[in-house]
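Hi team, as promised in this morning's meeting, here are the two structures we talked about. I've kept the exact order from the run log so nobody has to guess. The first one is mostly here for context; it's the second one we should focus on when we meet again. Sequence first, then the predicted structure tokens.
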Amino acid sequence: MFRDDEPSTSAVYGLTYKARCLSAQIGEAEKVRFLVGTQSLKDNEVHLVEVQDDDEKTNDIKCMSIFSHPHEIWNISPCPANADLFFSSYNVISNGSSEFKASLWKMEILDSNLIEVCELKGHQGDIKCLLWNPAETTSSRNAVSVDELNIRTWKVDTSDPKQVTALAAPKGHRFTTATWNPLHPEQLLSANENNVHGWDLRSGKETFNINYAHSPMVRDIDFNPNKDYYVVTGGDDFKIKFWDFRRPDKPLKVLQSHNHWVWNVKYNRYHDQLILSSGTDGIVNLWNVPSISSRVSSTASEEDSTGKLSRKDRVIKAFEEHEDSVYSISWATSPWIFASLSYEGRMVVNYVPNEYSDAILLDD
């Protein structure tokens, strides 16, 4: 287990403004970097920060560049194939009214310039998320945007993006978030208030649904990156739930440690027994869930009271460095590093405890 007397490896990065979105810069293969977007009524910024990834786990963090962004940022999505590009959705407030927009941006790091490449036009209501095709590793110019009423697929290969398709939300249920299947890129999963729907992007048809996954709202969903058919959800009932969507009537497992809404839940991309969750209770939980992972392993599990290794699913550690709602979490390109962001503009970087990372590596 994680020892309470183990020295903290947390690193804190403070922003001047409120902030709501953070994401790993997965297009940068050599460095551990994150993009962070602020949410101020006047001035806004995108921060590019870098974490020192070494054996000592010093968690040194530094700002590489700060880019001026024209409006408050609600979502940020770095391009997986080109580290200089990212999508953002933002709220344009003018004369007492507001309108959500989405654009593709290019960073000029040396000059701290942010250039708008193109805008994805025609959205209705709030833009919930922007996703890159996870199967494209060289060009990554196919994307999805999700607003309240539609899932839109885009071809973004020039400064004039083309909308390819639009899938309408089920009647009476607005979209709240979505995720793209990394194992089957023709498949998308959406949350629609308290339900979850599967979509085939080729046919434009719904493939399955999970009714009343959480009540009253599903806040986040994520595909298992290593095990087909498995997904995790988090919601306003303070729970995270694991599902096999071939049998959507009942969750495989229900876990609870938060005492308020679960806003985020994310699989580790390399070791799917590791799960992150965060919520409006200001807590980030790191879970070990070996029982339904792709590699059920005793050596990657905790020690029980007798000193023997067990396969109990549990929180490895609860991180409590935040003083406000944690609206965004992200695993880094390194499998052992993750970051969290709370609304007061506090970004915290942490590591998976040594006991667990070492055991997983030994098992591999």
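And here is the second protein, the one for discussion:
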Amino acid sequence: MKHTKAILTLAQIHNGTVTTSMVSEAGIPRHCLKDMTDEHLLMKAARGVYVLPEVWEDELFILQYTYRKGIFSHETALWLLGFSDRTPQKYTMTFPVGYHIAELSEKVHFKQAIKGLYDLGLTEIRSPGGHQVSVYSIERTLCDIVRGKNAQDIQLVPQAMKKYVSSKNRNIPLLLEYAEKTRVLLKIRTYVEALV
């Protein structure tokens, strides 16, 4: 009973979600999660992720927990950072080159970045479900979408760039630095000069 109480407290602290790693770190036997699931006190949302029955599953947190090396990027990052109002149909995540994923969810669009660029602009943000997730900064994200080749980017880029340039939190020198590192300096500079 004391383990059940401790797990419920952990879940309440973490927006209704508890993971096997949280339980292990708290010194609680993992089998308690299964027992609580059998008693309908928790629902299994994904491997290693459990939620209280009254809580909506946070897909972004579940994907982040499942693919720990994945960083939300491109259109997904634009949406998370408030630079796009389009909810992604698939969540784009960037992984380091060479990172092997045995099975990727159909909800994830897979991208890769080389070692020197993988953690460039890495930050954390709260998902709509209230959990911390890894995401690229807006400066890095703008560089990524400018480099993108799909048709959606054609519509997203001008809107996102315009919103960024008019933002009070813009950091044009950092944007240009990232643009140089990601080899899109000319494209980014063209957008910036047209909008400033």
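Starting points for discussion:
DSSP finds ten helices and eight strands in the chain.
The mean pLDDT is 89.
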